[in-house]
Amino acid sequence: MASDEQGITITTSAGGPASYYSFYSDGSSVQEHPEFGAEGQGGGFADGSGTFRDTWTVPAGAPLGRALVRVTVAGRRTPIDLAFKIVAASATC
């Protein structure tokens, strides 16, 4: 698989905190893959309009298949899971 850039836009309260991290098809999370560095996780604070935006590169060694990005924002008790699919470089999405 070739590395592929992903982006996320999180809407929350103005200046509010937002964070995300990735889970892979093999049941592991980005935290269990130190070889990936910080790719697939991040966070910060929304701007004055309540928007937080970030990008990351899906590591070339990420397991193929369904992946999730779990989003956490202030004021929401449950995280939001966003699914995407990691495919081989020769495959189509």
Concise overview:
The chain is an all-beta fold.
Question: What strand order characterises the main sheet?
Answer: 3-2-5-6
CATH class: Mainly Beta
Rounded Rg? 14 Å
Biggest beta sheet attributes = 4 strands, antiparallel
**Termini gap:** 12 Å
Which of globular, elongated, flat, extended, rod-shaped describes the shape? elongated
Q: Secondary-structure element sequence?
A: EEEEEE
CATH topology group: Immunoglobulin-like
Which segments are poorly predicted (pLDDT under 50) over 5 or more consecutive residues?
none
Helix content: under 10%
Mean pLDDT: 88
Q: Note the beta-strand portion.
A: over 45%
Describe this protein's structure:
The protein is an all-beta fold and 93 residues long. It has one domain (4-86): Immunoglobulin-like (Sandwich), CATH 2.60.40. Helices cover 0% and strands 47% of the residues. The chain has no helices and six strands. The chain has strands at 4-11, 17-23, 41-45, 51-58, 65-73, 80-86. The strands form two sheets. Strands 3-2-5-6 form a four-stranded antiparallel beta sheet, with no helix packed on it. A two-stranded antiparallel sheet has the order 1-4.
Comma- or semicolon-separated keywords:
elongated, four-stranded antiparallel beta sheet, 6 strands, 93 residues, single chain, Immunoglobulin-like, 0% helix, mainly beta, two-stranded antiparallel sheet
Give the helix/strand layout.
Layout: E1 4-11, E2 17-23, E3 41-45, E4 51-58, E5 65-73, E6 80-86
Antiparallel strand pairs: 1-4, 2-3, 2-5, 5-6
